[in-house]
Automatic annotation (TrEMBL):
Keywords: Amino-acid biosynthesis, Lyase, Metal-binding, Methionine biosynthesis, Zinc. Its cofactor is Zn(2+). Residues 16-203 form the Class II aldolase/adducin N-terminal domain. This is Methylthioribulose-1-phosphate dehydratase. Transmembrane segments: none annotated. It comes from Alloalcanivorax venustensis ISO4. The lineage of its organism: Bacteria, Pseudomonadati, Pseudomonadota, Gammaproteobacteria, Oceanospirillales. Its EC number is 4.2.1.109. InterPro entries: Aldolase_II/adducin_N (IPR001303), Aldolase_II/adducin_N_sf (IPR036409), MethylthioRu-1-P_deHdtase_MtnB (IPR017714). It is an enzyme of class 4 (lyase). The gene is mtnB. SUPFAM superfamilies: AraD/HMP-PK domain-like. The keyword Protease does not apply. Belongs to the aldolase class II family. MtnB subfamily.
């Protein structure tokens, strides 16, 4: 299969943006140590993504590499083990330009201690930070998938859930973390910040009973 070439300038811009956003996310405590992965679409056939095993608090432009939409590395380096979860979104959603995945305290505790297959966020003003949400009087259902090392199977499970109309803004992996996506890196970070804040609020509310 032939792939459209991506521009070097697009890659460099993506690498700068992902390194900067990664350090920002790390500073919020949502991506401890080498956890998490972030990506940006370069064109129809390629995405820039974090390399495997990189400390997100020290992320640099050289820690970003290119993959095709089948998740294969373009050039040297080993991409994130969860690359197929990013490329599934890019293949399915033509308007998806960025994907951010975090491993926060709140998402880990919520999904490990409450066994439901979804988490519902409702009535929060901050929901209006999500693309397309116009009012706090909104119910957002975030699917929770079981953790698996079979990333291809997990990506297929996400695809089936999206076929059913689930996972419109984000999804969670139990005991693992949050995935969210948007048209560009700024919108994606905005959604991530809103969702991580709301998950932390939801955790506190459940603790308080």
């Amino acid at each position: 299969m032939s792939h459209r070439p991506y521009s070097t300038s697009a890659y460099r811009e993506a690498a700068r943006a992902l390194a900067a956003i990664g350090r920002r996310i790390y500073g919020q405590g949502w991506s401890p140590a080498t956890s998490s992965n972030y990506s940006l679409r370069l064109n129809e056939d390629h995405a820039a993504i974090t390399r495997s095993g990189r400390d997100k608090g020290l992320l640099e432009e050289t820690d970003i590499m290119v993959v095709d939409m089948e998740g294969a590395a373009v050039g040297d380096g080993k991409p994130s083990a969860e690359t197929l979860l990013h490329t599934q979104l890019y293949r399915r959603l033509p308007d998806c330009g960025a994907v951010l995945h975090t491993h926060s305290h709140a998402s880990t505790v919520l999904t490990m201690h409450w066994p439901a297959d979804h988490i519902t966020l409702e009535g929060y003003e901050l929901l209006k930070a999500l693309d397309g949400v116009q009012t706090h009087d909104t119910r957002l259902t975030i699917p929770v998938f079981e953790n698996s090392q079979d990333i291809a199977a997990l990506a297929a499970e996400v695809d089936r859930a999206m076929d059913a109309g689930d996972a419109g803004h984000a999804y969670l992996i139990r005991g693992h973390g949050l995935y969210t996506w948007a048209a560009d890196i700024g919108a994606c970070y905005r959604q991530l910040e809103a969702l991580e804040t709301l998950l932390a609020v939801e955790l506190d509310r459940r603790r308080l009973g």
